[in-house]
Design brief:
With about 575 residues, the protein is an alpha/beta fold. It contains 23 helices and 11 strands. It has 3 domains: about 240 residues, no CATH class; about 200 residues, Rossmann fold (3-Layer(aba) Sandwich); about 90 residues, no CATH class. Helix content is about 45%, strand content about 10%.
């Protein structure tokens, strides 16, 4: 595999050289970036708490065209950058082997209104950038020492995580290895690299290494590439192979999931039983969109809201896959399946502050003060501050929210993260860490529930999940089944949802979700399963909805029962 397969490298390295000239003239740099996007009829992306960032670092500049977006848009931005910055380079025709940032985490510094940002953060990033270019050019002991010194300084800064290794790879792919989750997975789980390399990376699984450790990892990988039997010889070939291997593994896992027996109708429609597939498998935006039937813009909105607000509630009628989507939203934002960083609880009327935060529990000889599930998870996230953690709450509006959260209602707010308060049972300070995100789910068709607590409503954003029968993803799934009885059921439920939406006593929050009909395949689908879904999932809901309208209930019950002959 030669460089002709990696046409992006020429522009990336030359643009990196050009960018260094703006280290002491960042105002001109920002104006040029504005012009780049204006040439495309676009505004400069949000890079700070104000419309135009007052300062910027070079890695964030690279992040402008190395985050989740379609290739045509990336190429357009690169073409405009080349024109504005007078970069004469080979046209970029591919992005093989390039890891990308999540859009909500595309800066290497905190926004101005974030107390975790320090005045020297952006200056330090420029120093790191210069040291990285210098060391790539001259691998002397002096330049290595300078690289390590600058790396160790910026690795402690807010917003700098494994993304630093991605940025170093962007600017000098011949010299630095990206160690984002996909490549770490490949190096430790799927490749034939020597055990010492695998062990070294596994040791660093949850924490960005020091500068010395990072260079040692790069040196070891480079040595193995040059002396081993593999056809791979460069970091970018390795990165591309990691992508191909992870995509193949994802397809295998999906195939494995599709081969499992069809779930019976008594299993909840939001059941997420395939999470036993395994941890630390790469999980991308494309994986999310293939499994959760949202369109691309809805997904961008969803993860953008969660990244900014840190707390979101997925609300919708039964069967739209809220729990299923919540887990996969977490995986897609992490870039990997890692269940150790995802915790799920379900609220109910008896759930208490003692269960959630802290309280006295029997210990055999009396009572002892014990941490609740949320406090334990917060402590875990705080220790591993380089990674995101996701706390998922099913049926969030079934509990007494003020009682369950207590003083944590204030600490949940995005601008109150990492700011300590005293808990009810102890004098010790406690805070909700900034790397923890909360995803709640709420069933809009549950009549027994009161309106959600206003205090909690102010601290969460609400994202409506709708039945997705008309979505591109579901229609592709439906076409793959090639089953006329399935199509008949879909048409009937679509009409049923129109009737439910038009009912003054119900409305769209009571519609029937698509996930009741998910989880099968062309060679597995059976009429018995379709009848069971209608008889044991859909009709019982209608009996609850229209208990006071027996004629309407009987009409729909007869129609649904007669669909599958």
């Amino acid at each position: 595999m030669g460089d002709k397969h990696f046409t992006w490298i020429d522009f990336y390295t030359k643009f990196a050289d050009q960018l260094l000239a703006y280290r002491d003239d960042r105002e001109s740099l920002i104006r040029k970036l504005q012009a780049v996007f204006a040439n495309l009829g676009m505004d400069l992306p949000t890079l700070d708490s104000v419309p135009v960032p007052p300062d910027i670092d070079p890695f964030t500049v690279f992040g402008l065209f190395n985050k989740g977006m379609i290739d045509s848009k990336r190429k357009a931005i690169i073409t405009s950058l080349a024109q504005e910055f007078s970069v004469s380079a080979q046209p970029v025709e591919d992005f093989n082997g390039i890891p990308v940032l999540m859009p909500q985490m595309a800066t290497y510094y905190g926004f101005q209104n974030d107390s975790r940002r320090q005045p020297s953060d952006i200056d330090n990033l420029w120093l790191m950038y210069r040291a990285a270019l210098d060391y790539a050019k001259d691998k002397s002991a002096l330049s290595r020492e300078a690289f390590i010194e600058n790396f160790d300084r910026v690795r402690k800064q807010f917003a700098v995580k494994w993304n630093l290794t991605m940025a170093l790879y962007w600017i000098r792919p011949h010299d630095y290895m990206s160690l984002e989750s996909r490549n770490r997975w490949y190096l430790t789980e799927a490749s034939t690299f020597e055990n010492s390399i695998r062990a070294r990376i596994k040791e660093q699984r949850n924490a960005l290494p020091t500068g010395s450790q990072y260079l040692e990892i790069c040196d070891s990988i480079e040595k193995s590439l040059n002396t081993g039997s593999s056809e791979l010889r460069t970091f970018y070939e390795l990165s591309h192979e990691a992508f191909l291997s992870s995509e193949s593994e994802n397809q295998r896992l999906k195939q494995k999931a599709n081969e499992t027996p069809i779930r019976t109708a008594v299993v909840a429609a939001d059941d997420d039983s395939d999470d036993s597939i395994g941890d630390f498998q790469p999980y991308s935006t494309d994986d999310f969109l293939a499994e959760v039937y949202l369109d691309t813009q809805e997904y961008e909105d969803l993860r953008g809201i969660l990244g900014w607000k840190k707390n979101i509630i997925l609300q919708g009628p039964p069967g739209v896959g809220k729990t299923f989507a919540a887990r996969r939203l977490a995986y897609s934002m992490m870039g990997t399946r890692d269940s150790s960083r995802v915790e799920l609880v379900q609220f109910h009327q008896s759930y208490s502050y003692e269960d959630f935060v802290m309280g006295y529990k029997p210990d055999g000889s009396g009572f002892a003060l014990k941490d609740g599930v949320f406090k334990r998870f917060c402590d875990l996230a705080r220790i591993d501050s380089d990674n995101e953690y996701y706390f998922i709450i099913d049926e969030i509006n079934r509990g007494n929210l003020s009682q369950i959260f207590g003083e944590l209602l204030v600490l949940l707010e995005a601008d109150k993260r990492d700011k300590p308060a005293t808990l009810a049972y102890t004098d010790e300070p406690f805070s909700v860490p900034g790397n923890l995100y909360v995803i709640g789910m709420m069933n809009t068709a549950d009549r027994s529930l009161a309106l959600i607590d206003y205090a909690l409503r102010r601290r969460f954003s609400f994202f409506e999940m709708k039945p997705a029968f008309a979505s591109q993803g579901f229609q592709q799934y439906q076409s793959s089944l090639a089953n006329e009885n399935f199509n008949t059921v879909v048409r009937a439920i679509t009409e049923l949802n129109q009737d439910i939406t038009g009912d003054p006593a119900l409305g769209k929050g009571f519609c029937i979700g698509h996930s009741y009909l998910c989880g099968t395949s062309k060679d597995k689908i059976k009429d018995e399963w379709l009848r069971a879904v209608l008889r044991y999932d859909i009709i019982p809901l209608l009996e609850e909805y229209w208990f006071d309208e027996p004629e309407k209930l009987d009409t729909w019950k007869s129609r649904l029962e007669g669909l599958i002959q």
